[in-house]
Amino acid sequence: MALFIPTSISFAEAAPQITHLGIGAHQDDLEIMALHGILECYQNPTQHFGGIVCTNGSGSPRTGTYADCHDSTMKSIRQEEQRQAARLGKYLFVAQLDHSSAEVQNLTNNSLVDELYELLLQLHPEVIYTHHPLDKHPTHRAVGRAVIEALRRLPAKQHPKRCLGGEVWRGLDWLVDEDKITLDVSAHPELSEKLLTVFASQISGGKRYDFAARGRWQANATFANAHHVDQATLVSYAIDLMPLLENSQLTLEKFALSFVDRFRKEIEGEQGGKAW
Ligand SMILES: [Zn+2]
Fold it and tell me: What CATH number should be reported for the domain holding residue 117?
């Protein structure tokens, strides 16, 4: 694990101050999926953001100036980009774990769950942001699963007040409105732009995650409600993951499908209505 603390304090001093914790798969996921937490804590004396990145970035696709980078070089570049995001966003710490995507996706390998559990024993955040189980990216879903498994090992009194599964590789605008957690990410727009563009190795090859994420947030804000003016200029959606902590028997698959079932029921209901 590569631990980075932008200020001169120790991890033991930083850990109890963390109120918002993001746990993402790759370098750059926190800045999309947990941006709400980063912005809530930015320049806030009583709230502090911490981040955990689970994979080491060595398997990252590369083009352009990065095309000939060896895996170990790519790993260093991505880790430094993540450190730069932590400096810009004033995170209290960022822990970069050293797992490959294959390790994370291997359900018989508990090393990520063990490591997250050890970290969570030292952290007591009010809010955790991670990947939702409907995400299209298998490494994202695997990290989301590992976070839930690690949290389930903790006693209930050590659970966060909120555990949110945020958008990256699948938007959540299709959910029925009751299932959507709306996160206003309009604050500090210059900072959020910098946080997305700092990951030059990812966006230089034509994957403009910075444009894509911002475009989604703008679309979410405008298409949120047909009858009201926009309440926020940028909106990110999330799923409430707390039912998975309150009921340890609830499988991620059953939980994920429950959102699809409610969406289906909404469409079936409308079919019987006047609109059809
Ligand atoms: Zn990712």
Answer: 3.40.50.10320
